[in-house]
Structure formats: structure tokens, C-alpha cells
């Protein structure tokens, strides 16, 4: 049973692939048993562009975390991002056949499944259907309709859509690396579970996850996800700009960015200079930190303005949509010096850096609470939550079967529903993906 409680989050990023094994300790906190990292070579802007290299990187990360933790990895929860992700709002309703019975999970499942049948553009598939608020017989603003009476159940949904081919490519890589895919989750949602507190989600907050290839945005208000977006720029574009602007190789550009980079050009004096060794006996290059931060500033400003446009589109400037808790920055790119100040300056909102340490056990390794592991921690939490849900379902099924045995005349009726009702739309989606991959071989 102990092994069953262990989950694995696999963050397939543009810069690195991280496999994180963990379980919950007795206080309900995350205990990370092992972590494996590999350079990601086959992913561009969050989308798999080279299957073979991605499979190798996944295997490398998985092997490393297996050897650290001593556990064998079988199934993983994977994050998905990329510029093909878009979100839309949709309202739908069902008319219940029997208004004298209270609304239960089956009704909500039916409504969610109905939204899943929406016709998308060719080549697109629904990844998440997230209910926002419900309406029962024209009574609005209901967060939890279970247990209420009503004939018509209506809800507003936040629907996240992605490209079928990109989702299948990720599934293909995971399967070819010898792993089972237990779930696919949108990366900004995973990062949000890792770094945001419930109070922030209630007050209204925008999470900006700056990765290597993409910048992910998730907006919460009243504890509910309101808007998601993936912007196809990230930390790699900044490195690329430094490489071009200073005529140096990528490795040096990355080091310069991490060691001396700043998002605020007023910070450096003209006289501060870094000398970079030339290639193969060429003269060393001298670069002023002022110029370096000007290059970084220009690109970071562009990324933040893109994100701010999305925040405005959501309706931040309206009274109802105000984000009181401001902005939380996470991901590897959020470690850039003075980024927080620049974000506050451009958006006029409060900002903080989000560390995924809130849910980690007290004795966790210091390096795990780095913002660059936020997505992996979130995916791991997702995997553990799924186990908890499954166990609860199993217990309920056992209870219902026991009840059925006690009332023999209803045995046939009672036996079936628990198993039928419990398959969520997400499991169906993942099962469909597994089936497709099995047939593809």
C-alpha cells in the first residue's frame, strides 16, 4: 500500500525535464523522495519538436530520480503548455428528469460531459472543463449545487483547449520512455497549486510562470480559476537577445544573464564591465553591464506587457474583476534580478516571487523550494490528490456494495451505479489518449 501512495510529477519543459517522486507525510505535507533533472533538447516553446531526444531526456530524468529515491517509476502526471493552448468561456445547462431528487455528482458529471462534446476547430481537443459558478432554476452565483433541489442546472465553464497532435506527441514520448500517463494537466494550474495560498485565490491573483520557452498565466478570483493563457516567449528569448546583441555564444549569454543580468537598466554604472574570453585564441570581449541590462529590460518589458494585456482582457480594471492580491511570479525566469520591481512598475499591481515551499515538508532540501520547480511540485501534488480521490471512491463503492447486500431486493439496481458514475471526464480523456497510443504501435 505504501508504494501505491507515491506519485510522480513529470515537467516536460523547454529548458529542462524534471521528474519528481514524492508522497504525503503524516502531517499532509509533501515529502520529496527523489528528483531527477535532464537538459531538454527536443522541446521548443513548450511543444515537442524532436520525439527521440525528448524520450531520451525523459528517461535520463526518470532514471536519476529512481536512483536517488530507490523507487521504481511506473506512471506519471505530465504538464502541458505551449502556444497552441487557448481558453474560452461557455455556458451550458441540463434539465433534470426528476426535480424532486437533490442534485448530486452524477448531474454535475452529465453537465461537464455535455461541455466535452462541444465542437472545436479541426485538430483541437478539450483538455480541461472547469466549472465557475452554477445556476439552479434561475438562482445564480451558486458555488456548490450538490444537495440542492432544482429542475434546471446551469453553469459557466472555463474551457481549456489544445492541439490534438501536441497532446498526443507528449503522450507518445511518455509511453516510449516506458511510463504510463496517469493524467495531463495544464502547467499554469499545476504551478498555481504549488505557490498560491487559498486567501490569494479568494482575493484575486494572477500567477505568471516564466519558463524557458513559454510564459504561463493563470488568474484566480473568489477561489475559482477565471482565465488561463500561454504566451510563447520565456527566458530563452532573453538569452537569444543577449547572444545576438553581444555577439557571444549561447552558453556565455546564459551565464551572463544569470550572474550579472538585471531587468532594471538604471541599476548599473557605465563603468561596470565584464570581460568574456574569446573563442579559440580570439580577443576577449568586453561588455558593459549597462548594455546587458538594456537588452534584458527591452525583452522582459515585452513579455510583461503581453501578460498584462491578458490580465486586462480578463477584466482586471472592472470593479468585480479586481485582483486584490496582485501578481505572483514563479518559474526559472522569475529569478532575474529586479524583475519584481519592473513588474510592479509596468502593471501598477503588487507582486511577489512564488516559492513552492508552502506544501513541502519542513526538512525538504533547500533547492526544491526554487521557483523553477514550482510546476513539478504542482504536478506531484496533483498526482497525490488523484490517489486520495481514488481511495475515497473505492471506499464509497465498498460501502454502497455493503448496503446493497443488506437490502437484497434492490441488489441488482444498487450494484452498478457506483462504478458507472465515478468515471470523470478527465479519466475518459486520458483513457482515450492511452487507447490511441496503444493502437498507434
How many distinct helices?
Answer: 13
Query: What gap, in angstroms, lies between the N and C termini?
Result: 32 Å
Write out the CATH superfamily name of one domain.
ATPase, nucleotide binding domain
Oligomer: single chain
Strand order of the largest sheet: 3-2-1-6-11
- Overall radius of gyration: 24 Å
Looking at the structure, what is the overall shape? Answer: globular
Helical content (DSSP H or I, runs of 4+): 25-40%
Unreliable segments (pLDDT under 50, ≥5 consecutive)? Answer: 410-422
If you average the pLDDT, what whole number results?
85
Briefly say what this structure is.
With about 450 residues, the protein is an alpha+beta fold.
Task: Outline the structure in words.
The protein has 441 residues and is of the alpha+beta class. It has a domain at 235-296: ATPase, nucleotide binding domain (Nucleotidyltransferase, domain 5), CATH 3.30.420. It is 40% helix and 27% strand. The protein contains 13 helices and 18 strands. The protein has helices spanning 51-69, 105-116, 164-176, 187-195, 198-203, 235-246, 250-260, 289-314, 339-347, 374-406, 411-415, 417-421, 425-440, and strands at residues 7-12, 16-24, 30-39, 43-44, 47-48, 75-80, 86-95, 124-136, 139-142, 152-163, 180-186, 205-210, 215-221, 224-231, 273-276, 285-288, 327-330, 351-353. The strands form five sheets. The protein has a five-stranded mixed sheet. It has a five-stranded mixed sheet with strand order 14-13-12-17-18, sandwiched between helices. Helix 9 (339-347) links the parallel strand 17 (327-330) and strand 18 (351-353). Helix 6 (235-246) runs antiparallel to helix 8 (289-314). The radius of gyration is 24 Å and the shape is globular. The two termini are 32 Å apart.
Amino acid at each position: 500500500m505504501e508504494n501505491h501512495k507515491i506519485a510522480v510529477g513529470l515537467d516536460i519543459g523547454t529548458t529542462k525535464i524534471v521528474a519528481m517522486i514524492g508522497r504525503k507525510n503524516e502531517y499532509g505535507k509533501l515529502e520529496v523522495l527523489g528528483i531527477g533533472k535532464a537538459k531538454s533538447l527536443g522541446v521548443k516553446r513548450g511543444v515537442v519538436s524532436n520525439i527521440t531526444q525528448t524520450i531520451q531526456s525523459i528517461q535520463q530524468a526518470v532514471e536519476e530520480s529512481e536512483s536517488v529515491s530507490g523507487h521504481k517509476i511506473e506512471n506519471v502526471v505530465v504538464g502541458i503548455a505551449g502556444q497552441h493552448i487557448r481558453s474560452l468561456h461557455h455556458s451550458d445547462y441540463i434539465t433534470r428528469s426528476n426535480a424532486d431528487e437533490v442534485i448530486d455528482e452524477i448531474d454535475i458529471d452529465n453537465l461537464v460531459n455535455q461541455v466535452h462534446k462541444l465542437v472545436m476547430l479541426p485538430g483541437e481537443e478539450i483538455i480541461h472543463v472547469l466549472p465557475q459558478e452554477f445556476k439552479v432554476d434561475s438562482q445564480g452565483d451558486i458555488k456548490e449545487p450538490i444537495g440542492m433541489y432544482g429542475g434546471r442546472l446551469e453553469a459557466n465553464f472555463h474551457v481549456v483547449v489544445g492541439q490534438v497532435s501536441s497532446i498526443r506527441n507528449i503522450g507518445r514520448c511518455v509511453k516510449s520512455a516506458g511510463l504510463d500517463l496517469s493524467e495531463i494537466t495544464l502547467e499554469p494550474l499545476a504551478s498555481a497549486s504549488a505557490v498560491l495560498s487559498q486567501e490569494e485565490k479568494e482575493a484575486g491573483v494572477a500567477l505568471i510562470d516564466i519558463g524557458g520557452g513559454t510564459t504561463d498565466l493563470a488568474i484566480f478570483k473568489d477561489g475559482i480559476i477565471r482565465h488561463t493563457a500561454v504566451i510563447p516567449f520565456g527566458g530563452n528569448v532573453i538569452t537569444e537577445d543577449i547572444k545576438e546583441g553581444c555577439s557571444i555564444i549561447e552558453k556565455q549569454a546564459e551565464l551572463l544573464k544569470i550572474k550579472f543580468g538585471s531587468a532594471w537598466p538604471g541599476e548599473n554604472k557605465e563603468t561596470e564591465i565584464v570581460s568574456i574570453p574569446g573563442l579559440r585564441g580570439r580577443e576577449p570581449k568586453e561588455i558593459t553591464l549597462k548594455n546587458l541590462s538594456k537588452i534584458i529590460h527591452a525583452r522582459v518589458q515585452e513579455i510583461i506587457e503581453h501578460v498584462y494585456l491578458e490580465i486586462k482582457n480578463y477584466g482586471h480594471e472592472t470593479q468585480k474583476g479586481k485582483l486584490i492580491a496582485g501578481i505572483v511570479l514563479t518559474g526559472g525566469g522569475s529569478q532575474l534580478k529586479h524583475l519584481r520591481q519592473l513588474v510592479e512598475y509596468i502593471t501598477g499591481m503588487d507582486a511577489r516571487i512564488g516559492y513552492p515551499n508552502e506544501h513541502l515538508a519542513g526538512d525538504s532540501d533547500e533547492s526544491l523550494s526554487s521557483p523553477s520547480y514550482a510546476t513539478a511540485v504542482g504536478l506531484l501534488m496533483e498526482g497525490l490528490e488523484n490517489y486520495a480521490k481514488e481511495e475515497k471512491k473505492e471506499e464509497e463503492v465498498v460501502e454502497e456494495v455493503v448496503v446493497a447486500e443488506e437490502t437484497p431486493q434492490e441488489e441488482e439496481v444498487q450494484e452498478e451505479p457506483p462504478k458507472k458514475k465515478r468515471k470523470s471526464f478527465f479519466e475518459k480523456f486520458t483513457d482515450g489518449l492511452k487507447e490511441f497510443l496503444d493502437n498507434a504501435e
